[in-house]
Amino acid sequence: MTVRAFSAPGKALLVGGYLVLDPQYESYVVALSSRMHSIVEFTKSDQLKVKVISSQFNNDTWEYTLSENKLGNLIPSEVNGLKNPFVEKTILNVLNFFNKEKNIAKYDITIRIFSDPGFHSEEETTTIDNGSKKFNFHKKSITKVPKTGLGSSACLVTVLTSALVSVFLKDSFNVKDEKNLLLIHNLAQVAHCQAQGKVGSGFDVGAATFGSILYQRFSAELINSLPSNDDEKGNYIEALVKLVQNTDWKFTHDRIHLPKGLRLIMGDVNTGSETTKLVAKVKSWYNENMPESLKTYQEINQGNCDFITSLSELNKISEKDGIISEGYKSILKEIDNGEIKNEILVKIIKAVLQIRSNFRRISKKGSVDIEPAVQTELLDNVIKQKGVLTAMIPGAGGYDAISIIATEDCKIKESNDPVFKDVTFLDLKQEDFGLLEENASDYKNLVSNI
Ligand SMILES: Nc1ncnc2c1ncn2[C@@H]1O[C@H](COP(=O)(O)OP(=O)(O)OP(=O)(O)O)[C@@H](O)[C@H]1O
Ligand SMILES: C[C@@](O)(CCOP(=O)(O)O)CC(=O)O
C-alpha cells in the first residue's frame, strides 16, 4: 500500500491586518516552523469513504460516506453525525473536483492528522517522540483545547487537500510543481472560505501553501459566486473546475524571508480573541467613518509599505556576495547594543509605531480591542529590550499573541522580568517553505502500519 505524508506551516501576519481583506493592500506573512501533517493511505473499495483521524485530540475521528444528489454532485455525510466543517468542506470540494467526469474512482481513504506543539496550549499534554517527530497528546477533543492562533484550520485544510489530491493524481502529484501547488491553494481556499463563513482574506492558506510571502488577496467574488453544491439550477462541479483550474485569481504570493541574522519570536498571551467579531466591528467602524477611516487605512498602508520595502533593502545588504559583510554585522550590533542609528532600521521601527498608533486610534474610536492597553504596555516593554528591532500584534490583534523581530543573540526568551510573566514564548522560527512532502517513515509508531 502506498502511504504518503504532507506538511504545511502555520503563520503570523506581521503587517497588513484588516487592510489585507481588500485586494488593493499588500501584507507581509511569515510562515512558521510549527507544521500540520497529514498521512494518507487508501485501498480500492466498492464505496467512496474518507476517514480522518486526529489521535492527538482524544482520538477525534470523522468518517464520511459520499452519496450523489440529483445533479450527480457528491455530498459527504459523517456517519456518527459529528461536525468538523473544515474537514467536511475539504472532502466535498476535492472529491467533486475529481468527479468532473462523473466517474470518480472508489477508494476507502484514511488520513491521519498530526499538529506540531506550537498550535495548541501545552497544558495537560503527554508528548510522544518517535525519534523523528514529536507531538503532544491532549485529553480533550479538538474544539475544547485552547489554540494559539497560528492558523490551524488553514493548515488542516491545506494538508487534507494535498492528501486527497495525491490519492487521485498519484505519481503525477508533486508539491514542488507550481501548477500542483496552485491547484492545492485554490481548492483549499474554496474549502476554508466555505467552512469559515467567508470572513477571511486567505493569507493563512496562502502561507500554508507557499510559505513566507508578500500576499495580496484575490477578489472575494471568485468564491462567493460559486453556486451552492445542492442547488438544482447551478452546476457546482463545472463552476468549481473552472474556478480552481481555469481562472486567473490575480493574487500576489511572492516569496520572502526575514533578513539574515534576524529571527521571529512569537509570544502566546493565552487569553484569546475572536477574529470574526473583531473584523465585523472594524468593518462597521470603517463604513460609518468615511472619509477619516480611509485616511487612517492609508496611513497604516504607508507604514506597511515602509516596513516591507525596508526589510527588502536590508535583505539586499545582508545578501551581498552571499556572505554576511562586516558592514551588515555592525548594523545588527546596533540592535544588540540598543543604540539604533542605521536609517533602514529606524524606518522599520517608525513604520511599526505608525501602524500601531493608527490601530490604537481604531481601537478607541471603534470600541474594538485591536491593540488593547495591556498589549500596548507589553509591546512597549518588549521594544526596550536589547536585541529587539520591533514588535507588534500579529493578524487581527486582540489578546492572542505578540510577534517580535529580534537578533539571533537577543535574550528576551530567557528573561525573568515580571513584565513577561503572562507570555509563553513559542518554540518556533520563521520558515521559508510552505507545503512539503514528508517521508512517511518519519511517522513510524505514530501510525500503526508504518
Ligand atoms: N489537528 C486538527 N485536527 C482536526 N481538526 C482541526 C485540527 N486543528 C484544527 N482543526 C479544525 O480547525 C478548527 C479551528 O480553527 P480556527 O479557525 O478557529 O482556529 P485557527 O485557524 O487555529 O486560528 P486563527 O484563525 O485565529 O489563526 C477546529 O475547531 C477544527 O475544526
Ligand atoms: C483581520 C485579518 O486581516 C487577519 C486575521 O489574522 P489572525 O487570524 O488573527 O492571524 C483577517 C484576514 O485577513 O483573514
Automatic annotation (TrEMBL):
Coiled coil: none annotated. Residues 141-211 form the GHMP kinase N-terminal domain. It catalyses: (R)-5-phosphomevalonate + ATP = (R)-5-diphosphomevalonate + ADP. Pathway: Isoprenoid biosynthesis; isopentenyl diphosphate biosynthesis via mevalonate pathway; isopentenyl diphosphate from (R)-mevalonate: step 2/3. InterPro entries: Erg8, GHMP_kinase_N_dom, Phosphomevalonate_kinase, Ribosomal_Su5_D2-typ_SF, Ribsml_uS5_D2-typ_fold_subgr. GO terms for molecular function: ATP binding; phosphomevalonate kinase activity. Keywords: ATP-binding, Kinase, Lipid biosynthesis, Lipid metabolism, Nucleotide-binding, Steroid biosynthesis, Steroid metabolism, Transferase. Its EC number is 2.7.4.2. One of its GO terms (cellular component) is peroxisome. GO terms for biological process: ergosterol biosynthetic process; farnesyl diphosphate biosynthetic process, mevalonate pathway; isopentenyl diphosphate biosynthetic process, mevalonate pathway. It holds the Pfam family GHMP_kinases_N. PANTHER family: PHOSPHOMEVALONATE KINASE, PTHR31814. NCBIfam families: Pmev_kin_ERG8 (TIGR01219). Belongs to the GHMP kinase family. Mevalonate kinase subfamily. This is Phosphomevalonate kinase. The lineage of its organism: Eukaryota, Fungi, Dikarya, Ascomycota, Saccharomycotina.
